[in-house]
Amino acid sequence: MISPHAHRTAPSSWPRRLSARLGLSLCLATLALLPRIAEAETKLVVSAPSRPLELVKTPDGLGATFVLRNQGDTAVDPKVSLVSSASDPRTPPGVVLRLDKGRLAPGQERRVEVRWPNGEGKAREATGLVAIETGAKAPEMLSFRGRRDTSIWTTVATQALPALIALPLLGALLIALLGRARADERLPRRIAMGIAGLDLALALLVLARFDRGIGRLDGNDGFQLVSRTTLVKPMGLELAFGVDGTSVGLLATLATAALVAAGLGERSVLRAPRIWGSALLVLGGALGVATSIDLALTVACWGLAFAGAASLLLATSRPARTFAGRRVAFLGLVSTALLAAVALLASSHVGRAYAVDGSALVQGFGHADLVRASFPGLAKTLLGLPFTAGLTTLLLAAILPVLGLFPLDGFVQDTLDDGQAPALLVALLPALGSFVLLRWGAAMLPEGLVWASTSLAWIAAVSALLGALAGVRERRLSSLLGSALGVTSAIALLGLASATPQGVLGATAIVTASPLVVVLVGGAAGLLAARTGSADITGVRGLGVEARLLAGALLLGTAASVALPGSLSGWGVVVALLGSTARAPTATIVGALALGVAGLTTLGAVTNALGGTLSPTLRDSSVLEPFGGHIPDLSRHERAVLLPLALLVLVLGLSPRPLLGAAERASLDLAAFLDPPGPAQIATAFPTTASADIVSPP
Amino acid sequence: MPDYFGSLRHVELSWAVFLLPAPLLVALLLWFAPVGPALAARRALATLSGALTAAFVVGFAAALGNLGVGKRALLGHAFSFLRVGSFDSGLTLFLDPLALVFVLLVAVTAAVSLARLGDTATDDAARPRTLLWAVGSLFAVLADDVVVLLAGLGVATLALLLPRASGAAETGAGWPRRLLGWPLVAVALAVLAWLPGGGFTRSDFVPEGKARFGSVEARARASAPTTGARGGGDDGFLTMTGAPGSWVVLDGDGGSVHASPFVRARIPSGLHAARVVGGAASDDAELATFFVPAGAESYIAVVGATTSLREARNQLGLQATAGKLDLRTRLRDQRIVGVPLVIAVLGLLAAGALLATGLGSTPHHDEPGDPAASLPALASRVLLPAYLIARAEPFASASPFEGGLAAALVAALAAYAAWRAIRASSAPIALARSADALALIAVSAAFASAPGSTAVIATAATAGLLLAAMGAELRTKTDSDLYLPGAALIALPPLGVTLPWGVGHATAMILASDPRGLGLAIGYALLLAATAGALAYALLRFAPEPAGDDAPANEAPKTTTTTKATTKQPKKGSSKRKQKNEPTASPDEALPVANAASSPPSRLPRLLLGLGVVAAVLGALPVGTLLGVTMPLFGWIEEGNRVHPGVAPPALGVTLLVIVAALGGYARAQRARVRSVAEGSAVAIETEAEADADANDPLVALAQALRGLRGAFGPTTLPAPPINDGTPDDDVDVREKAPPEAAEGDGENEDEDEEPGS
What we know:
The structure holds two protein chains of two kinds.
Chain A (H helix, E strand, L loop, with lengths): L5 H4 L4 H26 L4 E4 L5 E2 L1 E3 L2 E10 L8 E4 L13 E4 L9 E9 L7 E9 L6 E8 L4 H30 L5 H23 L14 E9 L4 E7 L1 H20 L8 H19 L3 H20 L4 H29 L5 E2 L5 E2 L5 H6 L8 E2 L2 E2 H13 L10 H8 L11 H16 L1 H6 L1 H18 L6 H22 L2 H32 L10 H4 L1 H14 L6 H16 L1 H26 L5 H4 L16 H19 L2 H4 L2 H12 L4 H7 L13
Parallel strand pairs in A: 2-9
Antiparallel strand pairs in A: 1-4, 3-4, 4-7, 5-8, 6-7, 8-9, 10-11, 12-13, 14-15
Chain B lengths: L3 E3 L5 E2 L8 H11 L6 H28 L7 E11 L2 E9 L1 H20 L4 H22 L3 H16 L13 H20 L3 E3 L4 E3 L5 E6 L16 E6 L6 E4 L6 E3 L2 E7 L1 E8 L7 E8 L4 E6 L6 H8 L1 E3 L6 H7 L1 E2 L2 E2 H16 L6 H4 L4 H26 L3 H24 L3 H22 L4 H24 L6 H8 L1 H4 L2 H14 L4 H26 L32 H8 L5 H4 L13 H23 L5 H6 L10 H32 L18 H14 L30 H4 L1 H7 L5
Parallel strand pairs in B: 1-7, 2-3, 8-14
Antiparallel strand pairs in B: 1-15, 3-4, 5-6, 7-14, 8-11, 9-10, 9-12, 12-13, 16-17
């Protein structure tokens, strides 16, 4: 049935209808464009006392003001907002802008207040950006920063991060100068020990001031004690430092390892200034990798660490070491070049990046900016793969060879071979590689890492198993220990590939514990080799009776290096395996089997050396002749260095939280990158009050 | 409305649980303390610590007994290790009757071993090993979560690997089995930890996505508060024992706050909202509003993946009010190659534990030296696998039919072990295989989750430990007084009515159409008879002749071989090859103690006899139950399991079968003995194939090839250069000298160079 009103609602004719609609559209468009045309003539000028704007203490918190002046011809309604969101909180929750309402007449000024009231948010420092629409094409950015905790210790801790790297570099320079001046031959080691001691003190201070409850959602991209200085603005290079849960423990263990290595390196063969200068370069580079939050700086520190390592090994001028030095130099060169390529490629697609003063950068290397970059959205390809996958492939090509995985674990074994303590620092490089993979891979390229996760899990499992099997009936302790450390490194990779919070925490825990374990077991093994004159463990018997303290340190270090449950490394391995069980159960079984093989072969060899009695051949050998045919126990000096470390490893094995607990929150954050939460979890994690992307001014 | 209803394991909080490992731990620390009591006092303290722990067990037994049926469990939480997401590990100990029985066995083993040790350097080397093993084992037994359990097992393993003064290689034959075992245990426990939280596909774990905590209303079990909690008026009670260290905030920020674990915290009855705050590394969990009735107890339970086997067991008893599938159903439905995943995982756990603890090895392979010092290794083999499976047993109950089949399979393995015992050519071997059989019986019983399984497991494990210890003692001693506990053991199967009781239950279950009964009935009937026959055969066959006998079995053998357990250590490699073909010393020469006359009087047989009595008492507990008499101790162990009607006839029938089998074993042994004496043949100590495993180990060849592959990337195995530069150091004056060439000078190492593949 046709409605009686149908003919009335129908258009009379199509030309009239069209013209009417066109006219209406034109009117509406004119009305909409009018304000914009007017605004195009406005010009807001931002006047801030400093850039970045420093928040200072006020009665109710922190605050600072800047001024907006309208230098245009027409009145304008200023638009100012914080660049932050609940899901990507650059700025800690609670930071607000206060601006009087109303339009700003030409020539008029208005104060804008950045406030951070007490009790809002958990963070103790705030950095952020204020976007001001000035009438230009892009809004003007004003950065700000402030600290609630202005105690002397926090101030020192903030400055400690650059100092951690600067001190070793200055020490290396000083040693080089002293070497030319031919000063006391013991001085280089003492300088190195002093620098390592200072670094340890600073690292402990940083650890003490680090708030473990703060995560990425609490602002500042999850970093604490951040300090940024622009180095070369056109190139986007910055000296940017900060720590999060994955790096703060590593700082302390790296510095401890350096101090122990310096403490054990008293032997006269190690008095060459180049050795200690190189050792300091390794330390500075390693600490730089752990603390830098700028990719270019990280690559530079990475290269520095490898250069120092190669120089350290080459300084001993012995055939095996020379080869090892060349190998490390080659690995370092290749991996640094590949990392630099990754950094350049990533930074050229970063999108919007801002310098410390808020000015826009053409190219940004900031870790936080790169984390925000949306690489999967790019249509480009790299190496014939989607861009993210190609970038991840490059990253893996840079990192995997230095993780100490079979069959490329030879350089780790070389460094443990003859117990020259400074060379132990070279054995820390695999941990550094795992750390970079954690920070770059998990946070910056999570889609790529997930893409490669199955392959990574199997690479880790198979290399672990083969490496462990290669240790069967191995006679050299250094090779056994190198295999065992390679297996734990592979388990860290397996945990990371699982993309579970447990896997990531396990990987972080292994990385964090690694320096302590390496120097303990490497130091003890080196002392044993120095006493018996051979790295062959099968020729040693009765060590438990001959040198009880040395035997104890060796046993404890070995137990930790094979990740015996209840040891310091054991925690990371158990948690990593628990995480990988969920995602790659078969690879986990293979990895666990590798652990079993490595554990039994290494522990079996060491315990075999501890038992029985010293063989007459060794007892009568010329090496032990000066000691009356006995293996000497730890000297007073060695006891002072090695026993506190052994005690630390033992205590942290029984109660790991003081060291590894700092990584809990950060691991959860990293796992969230790899395995983003579903809708239900998002609803739980982000209450409605924090759902707005831009916190608008009142 | 609560999220779940069902029954939860009731616990009482008590720090006292930490007292159980404390004496042994203190003795261990004192042993290594740089200052402190004299050596003699340390020895005494070490000996005392084992006995003290055993004494503590009695006190705890009384304490648990006072708690009443269904509530006999104590929980103590010290601190958290690590926490991220659903992973939450802490030093939390859990004690229930099952754990207490195994604590007792570990303590008795440690006490026997420590009491037996003397004052020599060898003994002093063995003492800390035993202490360390006992401490690790106690933590493994008492652990509430799998990480502590693994750590305890790790420490216990390390203790067994520690050197002995005798210098025997600890990782000799059988080590490939061990290295396969522990990883399997670790992975199986990891899978068990994940299972409550979701399901495994072929390549991935798919979480179920439910809230991590849920409110629970206890319906299946009486939840009346204890006396102290009564009189609450309008108050109700709230309990949470999962995720220790978390905080429960009730009714918003202004409400009360409780730190987990807490038991029967008094809260106003009515509707409540709760938020569980796990700390920095886990998101807060909001619970749906739940009702707490006046005078009643409600729970907040962990739901989903958990590292606590106790919490996983609790989840098996829960049903969601929202109509979701319960965990038990989900577990039953998850299959891998047609087998329920949970049964496959438990099989993996059992296989791993049995392999890792040396199932199938003989005393002279893995436990050289003094048998007292070897006791911990023997105990590990017998106790720990059974305990692990018993602890994880509730998972098996999700698939009772397949669980029964698995029990039957393990029982068949036990029968095979018993058969090997009968075929053994020496008493130590026979006893070792019998111990294997009993260990497998215990595992089988745990798999079947039969009523009374705790008593079955405890009896079997105790008897297995006793047998293994006897086997070790026999190897070093021909003292006839050893046959005193041996005689007690022969009477064990008929006396140990626990096992027939289990068979009786199985039969009754068959009659009641319970599928678990199938495996139990077949398995137990077979293996009980076989084990009894083997025991009888072995003990009589190899028993020493009375004084004045013309042809003692253990003397003057014509053809025999040596073992590793010689006073002079055999060389590896070539020496083992020699063992194959060359008749060398007599068995008595191969033993540290040549004969009874020269050996000192031993206390071990008496201690073993004591252990036998314990086993017999444990085993005999159900007798009264079968006869209709109330047995308080049995009821205490079994936590109120009721005797199945119709148990007595089949149980008594099986007992008769066992007695017949034992008599058959005696008869067979008697015939063999008479024949051997008549033929003048001697008893050879069995040399098993694995004794030569090192020589032809394919792993060794593979390792050589792999090292070659690594060598392709650089010369990592260059000859070790001199370490020093010739200048004396400040602290250690190690001068530059040629390496001692220990490998060249030592004939042992020359032998090792000739390994295949080198």
